[in-house]
Amino acid sequence: MSRFQFIADEYPEIFELCSEVEKNKKANANLSILKARQALEKILAVTNLCSQYDDLFDQINSLYGECSLAEMETMHILRRLGNMAIRRKNLSEQNVDKALRALLLSCCWLYFKLDENVCPLSLFWQDDRDIAEPYVNEALRGNGGIRDSLKKTYHSTNPLSFDNTFDEVEDTTLNIWDKDVFETEAEYEERIRQLSPIHLGFGMIDDKQIDSYTHLAFPRFCLAKNEKIVGADINAFIVKVEQENDWAYDGEILVALKVCQGKIYYDYSKVVLRFGTDELPLTVLYWNQFAYENYIDFEQRMNQLPILPIGVCKPIKQKYDIDKQLLPFQISCYDFVQDVFSDIKINISVNRCQAKKVCQASGIWKIYGKMVRGEIDYFIEAKVISRCGRQSQVKKDTDTITIKCNVNRKQSAREQYKIGKKFYNRGNYAEAVKWYRKAANKGDNKARNDLGNCYYGGKGVEKDKLEAVRWFWDAAVQGDAEAQNSLGDCYYYGKGVEVNETEAAEWYQGAADKGHADAQTKIGNCYYYAAVYNFLNK
Q: Minimal CA–CA distance to 258: which of 313, 198, 301?
């Protein structure tokens, strides 16, 4: 009998995949674990809880509230084993056993906890009952029909029972975060400080998250919230990674705690990414003062930050000022600095020979900078501009330009876009259009796309398909996947432009390559109907 027999009738496809994991356990460990990963993907798919996410990492993280942290971590273990199999690591039978137990827990979560089914514990293997028993017992307690049948069959009396009314008078249960009535403030602060680091979320580092010049890694992350603890909206985490990235940089983010003025805070100076038995210290990027920070601590934290990749940029050759020797660059910033960097163009003082060399180089460049604090406002002092895709380290004598530019924090393009989004969500489309236009004129591609949607649907402005296409185009040529998908629709259906299915397919392909799910479906349809047309006209 299969250890997954309890799901055979309810979920036959998942049961079949789980059975294949068991069958291939000894013959091919890698294949077994790949089947286990497929089964996990199928489990998440049938829940319809995370259908908006394409990546398995994000799908699992979206289950906060539906899964316990232990259940989520078990799913992440299975995902990580699957990644090892994909990378053709030599996996063992013991790895398959680990995957099978993780898969069993995931199946129990789906069958008992999410869908509220019931089955006897005897249906499970003896070695699996430590996993299944809590779910079976919880299902038994939660099923009214079973409880009623037990009452009819059994009658039990405890002569020493009594009506416990004390909880209504005084709750003596102390939460670990609460200050005990017998604790002094100093004792409370020390106790919280001595607690082991707690779960903050999950993080992973893959090749795309490592900057080749600075060797800084920017983990993808998903953070939990705890109503008992005061947190902040973190922009990013960074860590120095000298060696080649490995699957092991994938695990749980832990953070220490501290007390300030009677409240518990996450101590963001003590954050690690734990993977297996190893820990990787993380540096938090947050552009405002933490609630527990004084001004001096804030200044020190900002000044200790390393040089960071700010974004990508391209020189505007035709606007080079040969007299002033100023070469303008257009910048597309990374998301994590959008709140502090609003300029989309900067002028760099560079002589004619250097400017010519920069403009002749193909492709886009990366811009790097150090975040410091000026007397009035933030600014970014960019140290290096390097060509994207360059494999060797940038040579300072040939590819380095030092620049300095002021940054307007109060009305960055991203902040203006967010203001517009709030007005749009409230139904005030005219005001939304105003803020979208401000952000769009500063180069924010999301604002350009949303402004195009407003013109397309006539929200806040008169319907104007041609104007919609113009804004979609501005964002699409900058690589915005949503705008590329929208522009593909315009060409496909002839909205604002003449019908051009070839042009539509090219824009759909561009968005699909960036992972845009809707565009992936559309480009698939384009290939399908093209094949059918060619077949019928042979």
A: 198
What are the structure tokens assigned to 10, written together?
């309810």
- The amino acid sitting at 477 is V
Determine phi and psi for 321, rounding to 5 degrees: -95, 100
pLDDT tens for the chain, residues 1 to 538: 788 989 898 999 999 999 888 888 888 888 999 999 999 999 988 887 777 777 888 888 888 778 888 888 899 989 888 888 887 778 888 889 999 999 999 999 999 888 888 888 888 989 889 999 999 888 877 654 443 443 444 444 567 766 656 555 455 555 788 888 888 889 989 999 999 999 998 998 887 888 888 889 999 998 888 888 999 989 999 998 865 555 568 889 999 999 988 899 999 999 999 887 889 999 999 988 888 888 778 878 888 888 888 888 888 889 888 888 888 888 888 888 877 765 566 777 778 887 888 888 767 788 887 766 543 344 555 555 655 543 333 333 334 444 444 433 445 677 788 888 888 988 889 889 988 988 888 788 999 999 999 999 999 999 999 899 989 998 998 889 999 999 999 998 898 888 888 888 889 998 998 888 898 888 888 877 765 455 555 5
Looking from the CA of 166 toward its CB, the CA atoms found within 13 Å total 5
Q: Which residues pair with 329 in a beta bridge?
A: 315, 346
Radius of gyration of the chain (CA): 29
Dump the DSSP string for 314-331.
EE-GGG-BTTTTEEEEEE
DSSP 22: H
Cβ burial of 295 (10 Å; 0-12, 13-18, 19+) is exposed
